[in-house]
Amino acid sequence: MELSSVILTTGSSVGFFRLVNAGVTKLPMPESACRNAWKWRNISTSCVHSLITAIWAVLCFFLHPQMAEDLIETHSVFSHALVSFSIGYFIYDFFDMVLNQKLSQSWELLFHHIVVITCFGLSVLSCRYVGFAVVALLVEINSVFLHLRQILRMANIATGTLYRVNSMINLGTYVVFRINTLAWMTRWLVLNRDKVPLLAYTLGSVGMAIMTAMNIVLFYRLLRSDFLKSSTRETKKEKEM
């Protein structure tokens, strides 16, 4: 893809997610979510991005399996477009948070978005490491359930079978597509150290370290919130009986 195509794809993506956000406002909103309508729209828009990107990333490797053998040079127009499309989303979401949320509440995600935009931007502009970027986007498979969890909680459906099933799938996909994927990417970076320029290796290593730390913290929070607390409550009930 030429630079003009990258700019067009990224710009179209920003516009698309603005339209998605506007479309969410037209849909019915649970009364419990009205207290923070912006967050409801933001999470719903993020869920749409995760769903599209998760399917797209899997299709990239299915339609172009050679990319899995060479994550540096080999890629298709389809996979290059995916990374450009995701850059557009992260740019959109960055400004959406800056304009609507306090910095103290969003600095972690803002920093995450800056790292992703920088790494993905270098990838699409240089047409290198596109396969590596697509592997990184496989984490969006988990993000679908992560965002659905937030939507259910905002809709006051934090109990019952649906929430419980989603929590188990969320935790399972978190381990497989987020923690394991990041571990594999870190290992790949170390094994291919001699093929990666110092700047890209440093940027990638710092990015992986930050993402790994953030994901371990989030995993603990999810485990404590959805499983450890409920187990504690059940234990207390048994003692009272």
Automatic annotation (TrEMBL):
<feature type="transmembrane region" description="Helical">
    <location>
        <begin position="168"/>
        <end position="186"/>
    </location>
</feature>
<dbReference type="Pfam" id="PF03798">
    <property type="entry name" value="TRAM_LAG1_CLN8"/>
</dbReference>
<dbReference type="InterPro" id="IPR006634">
    <property type="entry name" value="TLC-dom"/>
</dbReference>
<dbReference type="GO" id="GO:0097035">
    <property type="term" value="P:regulation of membrane lipid distribution"/>
</dbReference>
<feature type="transmembrane region" description="Helical">
    <location>
        <begin position="77"/>
        <end position="95"/>
    </location>
</feature>
<feature type="domain" description="TLC">
    <location>
        <begin position="35"/>
        <end position="231"/>
    </location>
</feature>
<dbReference type="GO" id="GO:0071709">
    <property type="term" value="P:membrane assembly"/>
</dbReference>
<dbReference type="GO" id="GO:0007009">
    <property type="term" value="P:plasma membrane organization"/>
</dbReference>
<protein>
    <submittedName>
        <fullName>TLC domain containing 2</fullName>
    </submittedName>
</protein>
<feature type="transmembrane region" description="Helical">
    <location>
        <begin position="130"/>
        <end position="148"/>
    </location>
</feature>
<dbReference type="GO" id="GO:0055091">
    <property type="term" value="P:phospholipid homeostasis"/>
</dbReference>
<dbReference type="GO" id="GO:0005886">
    <property type="term" value="C:plasma membrane"/>
</dbReference>
<keyword id="KW-1133">Transmembrane helix</keyword>
<feature type="transmembrane region" description="Helical">
    <location>
        <begin position="198"/>
        <end position="223"/>
    </location>
</feature>
<keyword id="KW-0472">Membrane</keyword>
<feature type="transmembrane region" description="Helical">
    <location>
        <begin position="107"/>
        <end position="124"/>
    </location>
</feature>
<dbReference type="InterPro" id="IPR050846">
    <property type="entry name" value="TLCD"/>
</dbReference>
<keyword id="KW-0812">Transmembrane</keyword>
<feature type="transmembrane region" description="Helical">
    <location>
        <begin position="46"/>
        <end position="65"/>
    </location>
</feature>
